[in-house]
Specification:
Elements: H1 5-10, E1 14-15, H2 16-23, H3 27-35, E2 42-43, E3 49-51, H4 53-67, H5 72-103
Antiparallel strand pairs: 1-3, 2-3
Length: 106
């Protein structure tokens, strides 16, 4: 069985309490970052927030930026820009894979 880095990092399985312990942020801070649309946890059927390892890394990055005096609106712009770049990169990768598959008739 092969494990893909992205697959486990993107699974939303971590509770807000554990995220708080891992990041050193309070649950209130984490919910605030969500309200500012910097982080997007999933909700269980009962309404509990679930985060991914990637969310934990993002929260640490957000906290570091805020300590440096960066405003949440600027952080949001940077996160959206990074997400768009990642999406564009994934699209290019899939196009190249498709061209290779077509060329070799896979």
């Amino acid at each position: 069985m092969t494990y893909n880095d992205a697959s486990y990092k993107d699974k939303k399985v971590i509770s807000i309490g554990t995220v708080s312990e891992l990041t050193g942020l309070t649950e209130r801070q984490i919910r605030y970052y969500e309200s500012r649309q910097l982080i997007f946890p999933e909700r269980t059927k009962t309404g509990l927030r679930k985060y991914s390892f990637q969310d934990v890394e993002t929260l640490i990055e957000i906290a570091n930026h805020l300590e440096e005096g960066v405003w949440t609106s600027e952080i949001r712009k940077e996160l959206k820009k990074r997400e768009q770049q990642l999406n564009n990169s994934n699209i290019r990768t899939n196009l190249i894979k498709g061209q290779i598959n077509a060329h070799f008739k896979i």
